TrEMBL record:
Its EC number is 1.13.11.46. Fe cation binds at residues 155, 236, 316. PANTHER family: 4-HYDROXYPHENYLPYRUVATE DIOXYGENASE (PTHR11959). Belongs to the 4HPPD family. Binds 1 Fe cation per subunit. This is 4-hydroxymandelate synthase. It holds the Pfam family Glyoxalase. CDD domains: HPPD_C_like (cd07250), HPPD_N_like (cd08342). GO terms for biological process: L-tyrosine catabolic process. Gene3D superfamilies: 2,3-Dihydroxybiphenyl 1,2-Dioxygenase, domain 1. Residues 2-125, 152-305 form the VOC domain. GO terms for molecular function: 4-hydroxymandelate synthase activity; 4-hydroxyphenylpyruvate dioxygenase activity; metal ion binding.
């Protein structure tokens, strides 16, 4: 079981895909035709495949998802050798079925509920699919151009309501055989955030499950996401790169805006990360890049501003220089930066 692609349901597939192409350097590789009732566009960069889908009819399930949650991740597609077998096993282990096994081009697909209205979709590709993860969509001419250095989908960040993390950890362990690899409690002012990380055996599907851990005080960013999204969902996806300074600069040149770390962040980063081998402090500050380290090495990450109408979904860019965790020292800085971004959206 490995990651095949991620699908977004959006109000306008062409506009959303256009943003990913113009600002992030993804290139369209396949799509349904213009004027069809459902418009899907597949985009690729590195080993990342995204499918963006919208529907013309207000009563279509795609449109209903968007009406309820806004533009966002609707499904995580898992590539398996036997979609029917994977679906049957998952249902026997307690998963809620969403779509029974059915043909998908010359392959097979089926779906179970993941979290909220986000589905986990099993995809069995035909033997002749080669390196095409979406052979059921008509291929389009390669438009050429250069990407921005994004390589692999590192992890998903999933926001859940209070008490939601442990049941979902048990779900992924029991139903899909995932393993919990990390957990943490983060305190930022009066806000508390609990997180646990689950990962598949292949190591290419990693979900950071988040819930608010406080019992009093003002709602925080996890509460705000769940409220604005009308339930659990994917808050952000992290894309890896080899050189975050080069990639972040390229993204900014294309119009991507990044969250601002707290003003004191770069004054204090040296206390946590005394040696910055790959990049200078001046480069990190200029490009709003955060730095952290664990026992395995260094980690650099930066978070984009949300461009969705509800200010829910955004992206992360990450460079792992040996580090295997998720920026423990930066979680608080991200939390505070997102709080600031959400407060700006209300003003």
């Amino acid at each position: 079981m490995n990651l095949n692609h991620v699908e977004f349901y959006v109000s306008d597939a062409d506009a959303f895909a256009g943003g990913l192409t113009a600002r992030y350097g993804f290139r369209p590789v396949a799509s349904t035709g213009d004027g069809e009732s459902v418009r899907s566009i597949a985009l690729r960069q590195g080993e990342i495949t995204l499918v963006v889908t919208s529907a013309a009819s207000a009563g279509h399930p795609v449109s209903e998802f968007v009406e309820t949650h806004g533009d966002g991740v609707s499904s995580i597609a898992l590539r398996v050798d036997d979609a029917r077998g994977a679906f049957d096993r998952a249902v026997r282990r307690g998963a809620r079925p969403i779509a029974a096994p059915a043909p998908l081009g010359d392959g097979v697909t089926a779906a179970i509920q993941g979290f909220g209205d986000v589905a986990l979709r099993f995809v069995q590709l035909p033997a002749d699919a080669g390196d095409n993860p979406v052979p059921w969509l008509p291929v389009v001419a390669d438009p050429g151009g250069h990407g921005t250095g994004l390589k692999v989908l590192d992890h998903f960040a999933v926001c859940l309501p209070p008490g939601g993390v442990d049941p979902h950890v048990r779900f992924f362990e029991r139903v899909l055989g995932f393993t919990m690899i990390f957990k943490e409690r983060t305190v930022a002012g009066e806000q508390v955030m609990d997180s646990k990380v689950v990962q598949n055996a292949g190591g290419d599907v990693t979900l950071v499950l988040l819930e608010p851990g406080h019992t009093s005080g003002e709602p925080g960013q996890i509460d705000e996401f769940v409220k604005s999204n009308a339930g659990p969902g994917v808050q952000h996806m992290a894309f890896t790169c080899e050189d975050i300074v080069t990639t972040a600069a390229a993204l900014q040149e294309r119009g991507v805006e990044f969250l601002d770390p707290p003003a004191s962040y770069y004054e204090m980063v040296g206390d946590r990360v005394p040696v910055l081998r790959e990049h200078t402090l001046e480069e990190l500050e200029r490009l709003n890049i955060l730095a952290d380290q664990d026992h395995d090495g260094l980690l650099f990450q930066s978070f984009t501003r949300s461009t969705t109408a509800r200010r829910t979904y955004f992206n992360e860019v990450i460079e792992r220089a040996g580090a295997t965790t998720f920026g423990s020292g930066n979680i608080k800085a991200l939390y505070e930066a997102v709080e600031l971004d959400q407060s700006r959206g209300k003003s």
